[in-house]
Write a structure and sequence with these properties.
Number of helices: 18
Shape: globular
Mean pLDDT: 82
Low-confidence stretches: 276-300
Strand content: 5-15%
Largest sheet: 5 strands, mixed
Helix content: 40-55%
Radius of gyration: 31 Å
Order of helices and strands: EEEHEHEHHHHHHHHHHHEEHHHHH
Number of strands: 7
Distance between the termini: 92 Å
């Protein structure tokens, strides 16, 4: 039997002491129905003061007064659903810094599952400078962002309504989506409207055919012959009326967002946006000629239409805000540019460089390293950046583009695959946006042909280098040539 050594020293636990770098900070653990728990700064005797407040607006003002009495300069809180928004807006309006943190970064510690311990742990990390706040644009931009995000929800409802309309038509074997290319187009909408108003004759329904339709009147009429059941007609009518309401609602969202963009652009000065030297957007006015030599000198230039002037005015607002014409980039139109401005704002100095900016948008390569080799890495959290998604959609539209970015997209597709090309092109768009907003570098498109010539010159240079390095002769490459 082995005797235990009684003189053996017991192992002592090493206590890690965090160095406090900020004293007047607080941590808040938010709740939905329960109380908000707040941990204030450390008192003179070394103890922490923890209290709770309700979730109503009067209780939030009591919380604000409690924090102000303790000279709190910064507050850290978790971004839990939308419950943090009233608290954060109230604190920011009263000049208290709000550090919005990811709940997944502070909950991976065992033993801190209660509300009191959570707020204490958040305050401890915040006082030691161990919390990383989320990127949030200014309040004026956040207001526009909330409008466009709600518009995105309405657009999803509109897509669902179109699917319900198509389902009702299929149940009656009325194949409008086979007769025309788009049920939501001019011809498709006219046909469905006539059905809702009571028309059942296939020939009269096909008479709503647009002259640009490829199928003839008789071919369309054949697809519009079906079984007219009352319950399906009722469902179709309800879906069609709902679609008209959603269309009007989307127009109101667009109108409101454009008004807010215009109002925001009037508050931007050259000191706020030094990259913008002028509020005039560098857009050429449309003329009635395609080339300078095809129009006589005496013929005056055609004045832009009211719609074109409206589009130019809308783009001017975004240009004044950002100091960079986002629509000059291939694949980016007004809608995409509006999403980018509303999601990011005009101050991108928060990001150290263009690579960090692309990483925030979820456009960086996800290469994991193991043993010095690249391995597949499953990300713990999926990036849900709306700006990154908008850039991906813009990049996906460049496959047939004659721009330099289109040539780059096709080149990456040849070397890899289309999915990789979309991400790589979107990342390049993000780099151009960062350079334009931060450094004022305007984008000049050299065209697909110039980009292809650049690639060819680069390839020839590399091939010459290989031939010289390994002393390869022409007979070794082409033995058939004499």
């Amino acid at each position: 039997m082995v005797k235990k050594n009684k003189n053996k020293r017991k192992k002592t636990k090493k206590v890690v002491v965090f160095k406090e770098i900020r004293r007047n900070v607080a941590g808040i653990d938010l709740a939905w129905r329960a109380d908000h728990y707040v941990c204030g700064p450390i008192q003179e005797n070394g103890e922490k003061e923890i209290t709770s407040f309700g979730t109503t607006t009067p209780e939030l003002y009591k919380m604000l007064k409690w924090l102000q009495e303790r000279n709190v300069e910064s507050v850290a809180l978790e971004s839990t659903s939308v419950y943090w928004i009233p608290t954060a807006e109230l604190l920011e309006a009263n000049d208290i810094e709000v550090v919005l943190i990811d709940p997944r970064e502070v909950r991976m510690v065992p033993g801190r599952k209660s509300d009191m311990k959570d707020c204490e742990w958040i305050q401890k990390l915040h006082s030691c400078g161990l919390l990383r706040g989320a990127f949030r644009p200014p309040e004026s931009v956040v207001a526009i962002r909330s409008i466009l995000r709600e518009k995105e929800t309405v657009l999803a409802m509109r897509v669902q309504t179109l699917q319900q309309m198509q389902k009702s038509l299929d149940q009656m074997n009325i194949r409008v989506h086979h007769a025309v290319s788009d049920i939501d187009g001019v011809t498709g909408t006219a046909i469905v409207r006539a059905i809702v108003e009571g028309e059942r004759d296939p020939i009269k329904l096909a008479a709503h055919r647009d002259k640009r339709c490829k199928k003839s009147l008789s071919e369309i009429a054949e697809h519009l012959t079906g079984t007219w059941r009352d319950e399906h007609i009722f469902n179709l009518t309800q879906a069609f009326n709902r679609l008209q309401f959603l269309n009007k609602s989307i127009e109101e969202y667009d109108s409101r967002a454009k008004e807010m963009f215009a109002a925001l652009s009037t508050t931007i000065t050259d000191s706020d946006n030094p990259t913008s030297s002028s509020s005039d957007l560098p857009i050429e006015k449309p003329t009635n000629s395609t080339s300078p030599t095809s129009t006589p000198a005496k013929l005056p230039a055609q004045k832009p239409t009211a719609k074109e002037l409206k589009n130019i005015t809308e783009k001017k607002s975004l240009y004044k805000i950002m100091g960079f014409d986002l629509t000059s980039l291939a694949g980016i139109g007004y809608e995409t540019a509006a999403i980018i401005v509303a999601e990011l704002g005009n101050n991108l100095n928060r990001f150290e460089d263009e690579n960090k900016f692309a990483s925030y948008l979820g456009l960086s390569p996800s290469h994991g390293k193991s043993g010095g080799k690249n391995v597949r890495q499953n990300r713990r959290c999926k990036n849900t950046s709306r700006a990154g998604r908008a850039l991906r959609m813009a990049a996906a539209s460049l496959y047939h583009s004659t721009s330099a970015l289109g040539a780059y997209f096709r080149n990456v597709t040849r070397r890899s695959d289309r999915k990789t090309a979309v991400k790589a092109t979107a990342r390049r768009l993000a780099h151009m946006i960062y350079r334009g907003v931060v450094y004022g570098k305007q984008y000049l498109d050299c065209g697909a042909e110039a980009y292809d010539n650049f690639l060819r010159e680069k390839m020839v240079k590399n091939v010459k280098k290989i031939i010289t390095t390994f002393n390869i002769s022409m007979l070794e490459i082409c033995p058939d040539i004499k």
